[in-house]
Amino acid sequence: MASPFDIEDIYPDDTDHPLRLPRRQVGTSTQGVAVTLLADYTLRTRAALPSAAVVALLTETGVTTAGARTAISRLARRGVLDGSRRGRHSSYRLSRAAAANLSAGGHRILAPTDTTWDGCWTIVAFSLPQERGAQRRALRGQLRWCGYAPLYDGLWISPYDLTPPAQAQLAQLTPGAVTVFRARQTALASTGSRAPIDAWDVDAIGRHYEQFLRRWTPLLPQVEAGRVDGAAAVRARTEVMDTYRRFSTLDPQLPLELLPPGWGRRPARELFSAIYDGLAEPAQRHVRAVVARFTDGTQPGIQAHTTADLLIGVRDDASGP
Q1: CATH code reported for the domain at 121-183
Q2: Are 158 and 252 in contact (CB under 8 A)?
Q3: Each residue's pLDDT tens digit, 76-93
Q4: DSSP per residue over 145-212, as a string?
Q5: CA–CA distance from 304 to each of 94, 155, 298 (Å)?
Q6: pTM to 2 decimals?
Q7: Of 157, 178, 187, 288, which has the fewest Cβ atoms less than 10 A away?
Q8: How many Cβ atoms from other residues are within 10 Å of residue 88's Cβ?
Q9: Do strands 89-94 and 49-50 pair parallel, antiparallel, or not at all (unpaired)?
Q10: If we measure between CA atoms, which residue out of 244, 278, 302 comes closest to residue 106?
Q11: For residue 6, which of 126, 117, 156, 168 has the smallest C-alpha distance?
């Protein structure tokens, strides 16, 4: 049975690729928080912020100064941030590749998926010998990223069609070792037969939605009343994004027909949008104020985007999509 805790990374950590975004993990990653923070206010403009300002903002979220500096340095080495220096002062901004990936990811976590299901399953069957372990891990990671889960060893399923980009990825990873087909399940009379939905730990995914709703519902009245401001607004907005975006890997967006009544996907999405958008203005004011302390009073290109912007597709204003 596939557990959401088995998922290592929303972005494959491919050392041959120049861009390596932070791993998704249980708990909070300093590098992940740094990426979220920069993306929330500079994704559209790719503005360069003084490293001292980024460190100051990160320390307000509970990160130590040393931890913040280490995270920035590592993100630069991974190709997520571009660095520049003027005298003794350094600045960083999102790399173009990171901004493109984050923009696509922002759309992915918010795009509505409650569509009608045709009752068919896509089955990916593969056979790779044990000595090709690295190839097996890469294939399994790509299938998880596409929302598939193992019904049996070497047989992975999804209720959705395999998209052309995913087809190209699988063909590249395992030439000649994969077969893909789409079919309906035939239920057996035996009580021991395994249903396709059993490939996922639906109860565990549901508990994550319940935890999210319990954690953030009490804050919503304060946000709507305008009582969350300053560093608290930035901290809450960063945390709610860093938490909610994990659902893009935890939840394979299974059709509602296969899920228990009262599934938390839609309520969680609505709660996230209300808090994230409701805190955009006060959080933007605070980020501008902090950055201004290190830039002679200016706030270069700091713009908080909303969930509507993410759905449309946040663009780099300087160079198009």
Answers
A1: 3.30.70
A2: yes
A3: 999 999 999 888 889 999
A4: HTT-EEEETTEEEESSPPPHHHHHHHHHHSTTSEEEEEE-----SSTTPPPGGGGB-HHHHHHHHHHH
A5: 15, 43, 16
A6: 0.82
A7: 187
A8: 5
A9: antiparallel
A10: 244
A11: 156
